[in-house]
């Protein structure tokens, strides 16, 4: 594909719709978690109570990851609106359709991401 065809209007519309759908799902999950955690269950057995608390802790960790993903989704939608979506933040090269299909919130090309991960592995955060 030519650079001029990359991230054309149809592709941007596709990814924006996909990201908005993902955002809607993440917000729905957050709302369900809030409702679920508001339900007060009084269980006299300490083991059952501990199980319920562990399930709540796991659910909260999952929602925390989803909250971070939601922030990335919103940044990606903003990048589409600004005309910057699909281009590597480090190199300015195309990220690539296959990578964006796999991870629509990607901001780095595969090579740039691999370099960043190698640097983190070698030098730490």
UniProtKB/TrEMBL annotation:
The entry's localization annotation reads:
Cytoplasm
Q: What is its main location?
A: cytoplasm
| Domain Zinc finger DksA/TraR C4-type stretches | 83-117
Q: Which GO terms describe its molecular function?
A: zinc ion binding
Record GO cellular component, one term: cytoplasm
Q: Where are the zinc fingers (dksA C4-type)?
A: 88-112
Which key words are in the record? Cytoplasm, Metal-binding, Zinc, Zinc-finger
Q: Which domain of life is it from?
A: Bacteria
Q: Which GO terms describe its biological process?
A: regulation of gene expression
Q: Which residues form the DnaK suppressor protein DksA N-terminal domain?
A: 11-80
**A Pfam family this chain is assigned to:** zf-dskA_traR
What is the purpose of this protein?
Answer: Transcription factor that acts by binding directly to the RNA polymerase (RNAP). Required for negative regulation of rRNA expression and positive regulation of several amino acid biosynthesis promoters.
Q: Which family does it belong to?
A: Belongs to the DksA family.
Q: How does it assemble?
A: Interacts directly with the RNA polymerase.
- By what name is this protein known? RNA polymerase-binding transcription factor DksA
The major lineage groups are:
Bacteria, Pseudomonadati, Pseudomonadota, Betaproteobacteria, Burkholderiales
């Amino acid at each position: 594909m030519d650079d001029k065809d990359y991230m054309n209007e149809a592709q941007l519309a596709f990814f924006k719709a996909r990201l908005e759908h993902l955002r809607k799902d993440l917000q729905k999950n957050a709302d369900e978690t809030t409702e679920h955690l508001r339900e007060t269950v009084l269980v006299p057995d300490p083991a059952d109570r501990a199980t319920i608390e562990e399930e709540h802790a796991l659910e909260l960790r999952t929602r925390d990851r989803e909250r971070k993903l939601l922030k990335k989704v919103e940044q990606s939608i903003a990048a589409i609106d600004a005309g910057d979506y699909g281009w590597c933040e480090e190199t300015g090269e195309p990220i690539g359709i296959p990578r964006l299909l796999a991870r629509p919130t990607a901001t780095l090309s595969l090579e740039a991401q691999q370099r960043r991960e190698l640097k983190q592995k070698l030098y730490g955060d």
